């Protein structure tokens, strides 16, 4: 059976809101507040438990975990080292966001260490995904200087070697588990002009993983819901003037809080393709239509 | 003499604005910014002095102190241990906000340690107050899973054993010093959809303690002023569209900055009752009408 | 040749936007988010790299560096000690913002230690600049209790002894390199009612230093651009209601993002004077017209 990815994402949004997943965030100091507010607007419950002696305990009871390496203090690094094995032991899905990896030594070493814990999802911009996969120079740290598609090979490689879903942010977002590739064309450039545009998506992804047995479908839904809300926020529905980055941020939270399943379906610009054993992409219409092709890839 | 709690709160608001109390905050990383902005909007002066070697010095000159355990890094824990005895030695009133106590081990141990310093006010949601008093399981950490009134006994117990005023956030806020109970019915559900909805109230309470000889009256005024501002912010006075959590946050700061004493009196939904020696509540009309009853309780 | 300071500032704004300078911020936890968003709105790229083992590496590749002492954790203090020599070795301009110096011991010691690294610009309020120069009592830490002009002597002294440009925030901002004094009368009182009003200006200054060979001109341009944007934000262009501190903050980011060079020139209220060897000020019209006078001062 083939499931339409837009409809499936809308259903997952409803599931997230019903379940109010508890999302533990070990994240950077720039986006802590906006990440928590984004989770609240989505309908999830944020918990920024990132100290030694608590991070591991909490990862065992959380619904999902985000480890974002944006400003990894010594205490946060130890917290991440506690949380990841605890999450894995408890079956808590977790997201690794390797901010500025490749450019800076401490986080790069930590990212590779945490990769061994096989993240459920790895989320980053093209530079970061390429750096993590060992390709490219890593950019200037925080901005995406590579096109998303140039990171597709790196994403596929990471997915294959770590069993992770890999999500690459860009003008078109790309999500892959190695056998399926989703491209989400929703979003707005204003997302790149506010802090947390990418980082908060990592937390939203962790929330959707708690609601989906299929991490690929969860990551696609998170990206779609997030970028559709951004489009609505940028569209200036109240007509009170030009939307700049300052007023966009609160509008985005409003749009996310008020987003309906119908809006997700109507606005979705998502396409899922499969990769066959020869690496040739073939278009499909459903988010799980790749099962047959997958058999080829995995065998 | 009986003082109307709404009018008294309005007067304390004016006193806070005249005095610009310097409020030291050792608080969590999620709400640091919104807490500082809330204090500024109120007319107080925020000072987030939370490092070793400075927290104790500053607590001796601050007008009020907040210790919030939301994300207690090792350095903040030491800062709290410096600040509390210094505040007590200098007569600086202080507020303990035991975020997620009972759920997580490090903060739970610290909360009990700090309790020995006899906080002027203890502020939390029902789960936290019950956990701190040794009742209930402590909820999931950050959301209020118990009704406020179910925490009334726990609040009374904490008040009696530590000489503190205890303030419990919820749909109806409850404040007690063991002999008086105030219930504040103002507020808006949007306060629970933005970070800092509860945490920033702790800082506002510290500001009002600096302006009131009676910590109970100070805590009531803080809660009333804060929740009335929230109501106004949620009411969409400009009529520019539906208020969601994103646009509510800046509107709340505007409403707090522009709040008049008259608005506090007009909108107040506050009721103060006393508890007699047998534990039976008797309604009173004034915030200090409990003096006679208090003699019974304390004897 | 004399250059009009308003026109020159407008040109530097265009240069900043073309170059997208990478601004490393070691800054306080209250303003981390608003500082990053302010840099993004300006057209610069923020990078909050403030941990041991990375701060020094990054200062060597950043376009500019801010060291703000608002909440200097132990890890941040070490990061600053790494970053400053690295910035100096690489020729990266850097800004020191000595928040609350003079009041609190840890940051005061660190500020004097960092001063030896000869900041390109020192930015603070009057109390802080006077405390750093050894004059005045240092105020209450975070608010400006001295008039800007009373800090003019202290600013001149700091400029002379450390070879730094000194920028003093206040109702009228004062910027001096010891031979030139600029006074910028733009701005709005709402800047003092939101966190980051001063701190984010330090980061903006670092961005302009990356675009200007003359640190004095860079600091003047940063102050002018920043305070003109604040005026526009406070002016309620959309006419949707009274602007309070909450709605001012996002409007300010919008105004900064949409600010044109023409608006800077039209609204600028900036005056540059020189100081002759006898300490007597003489008015000039251009930002570099002081060259002749400077010869007197420096000889």
Automatic annotation (TrEMBL), chains A, B, C:
Enzyme Commission number: 2.7.1.50
> Which GO molecular function terms does the record list?
ATP binding; hydroxyethylthiazole kinase activity; magnesium ion binding
Which NCBIfam families does this UniProt record tie to the protein? Answer: PRK09355.1 (NF006830)
Q: Name one GO biological process term.
A: thiamine biosynthetic process
HAMAP family associated with the record: Thz_kinase (MF_00228)
Q: What class of enzyme is it?
A: transferase
Q: Which cofactor names does the annotation list?
A: Mg(2+)
Q: What protein does this entry describe?
A: Hydroxyethylthiazole kinase
Signal peptide segment: none
Q: Which family does it belong to?
A: Belongs to the Thz kinase family.
| Keywords assigned | ATP-binding, Kinase, Magnesium, Metal-binding, Nucleotide-binding, Thiamine biosynthesis, Transferase
Q: Which gene encodes it?
A: thiM
Against InterPro entries, the record matches this protein to:
Hyethyz_kinase, Ribokinase-like
In UniProt terms, what function does this protein have? Catalyzes the phosphorylation of the hydroxyl group of 4-methyl-5-beta-hydroxyethylthiazole (THZ).
Q: What are the top taxonomic ranks of the organism?
A: Bacteria, Bacillati, Actinomycetota, Actinomycetes, Micrococcales
Reactions catalysed: 5-(2-hydroxyethyl)-4-methylthiazole + ATP = 4-methyl-5-(2-phosphooxyethyl)-thiazole + ADP + H(+)
Provide the binding site for substrate: 48, 196
Pfam families in the cross-refs: HK
What pathway annotation does it carry? Cofactor biosynthesis; thiamine diphosphate biosynthesis; 4-methyl-5-(2-phosphoethyl)-thiazole from 5-(2-hydroxyethyl)-4-methylthiazole: step 1/1
Originating organism: Agromyces fucosus
